[in-house]
Write a structure and sequence with these properties.
alpha+beta; eight-stranded antiparallel β-sheet; four-stranded antiparallel β-sheet; 24% helix; 29% strand
Length: 241
């Protein structure tokens, strides 16, 4: 019910990092994160031992595991419906104001019709970073599972649009995430590492902390310096895939 949804949202202590686009909070305990990571590592060991061919998490990350494909889809269906969907509706309330329902059946239907849920890993001898991109999602949930690591900061580029009619690449101000509709926007300018002038925010992951952001927000990952980092990623989609 609505009261439970309000409590779910309030108890997780979300704060806004980029207005209307990016929030940080805590939903899962450290124990949950480590347990899920342990289960994923056991599954990957089994897959490697049996020499089973599996798809990479997505077109950019080569290492990890698609949880939808290893018997966890129904679990995350429930997690999204019970927790993530009501939280996202609270955090991004302006996005849902135009959505009206006329019947009881439609009002009880989930907002998200599909999801792509996977774990990605960064290691020195595997994927060390991730180039700038947008996610194939309406909203993305990103939870750090572990382990000990340094570097591997997540960065978000500025969200101003490039004026395509202006050859000097000037930008217009006060744009929201929704204005990033093509790869010519300023957000897709090169990332130059720490101190990058195109970045609006960098974020250092720690176990149990999660980010929720619009999928079209342009972001990437700086190189890992040491250790290993694994994250649970959920791409929430309003369309069926």
């Amino acid at each position: 019910n609505d009261n439970n949804n309000d409590n779910n949202y309030n108890n997780f202590g979300f704060s806004e990092l980029i207005p209307g686009c990016l929030f940080v909070g805590n939903i899962f305990t450290k124990e949950f994160c480590l347990k899920l990571l342990e289960e994923c590592e056991n599954l990957k060991s089994f897959i490697n031992e049996k020499k089973i061919n599996v798809s990479p998490p997505n077109s950019m990350n080569r290492y990890g595991l698609i949880l939808n494909n290893v018997g966890m889809k129904n679990i995350f269906d429930e997690i999204i419906l019970t927790y993530l969907e009501p939280i996202i509706k609270k955090l991004f309330s302006n996005e849902f104001k135009t959505t009206t329902t006329t019947t009881t059946a439609s009002s009880s239907s989930p907002t998200f019709q599909s999801h792509h849920t996977f774990v990605v890993s960064y290691r020195i001898d595997e994927d060390k970073d991730l180039k700038i991109h947008r996610d194939d999602s309406d909203f993305t949930f990103n939870l750090c599972l572990g382990k000990d690591f340094s570097g591997s900061e997540l960065y978000f580029h500025k969200i101003d649009d490039v004026d395509d009619n202006n050859n000097n690449n000037s930008t217009s101000n006060n744009k929201s995430c929704n204005d990033n509709n093509n790869s010519s926007c300023a957000a897709f300018m090169d990332h130059t590492g720490p101190g990058c002038k195109n970045c609006s925010l960098t974020f250092q992951h720690k176990i149990g902390t999660c980010l929720i952001h619009k999928g079209k927000l342009v972001h990437g990952v700086d190189p890992l310096v040491s250790g290993e980092r694994s994250n649970l990623i959920i791409w929430c989609r309003s369309r069926k895939v």
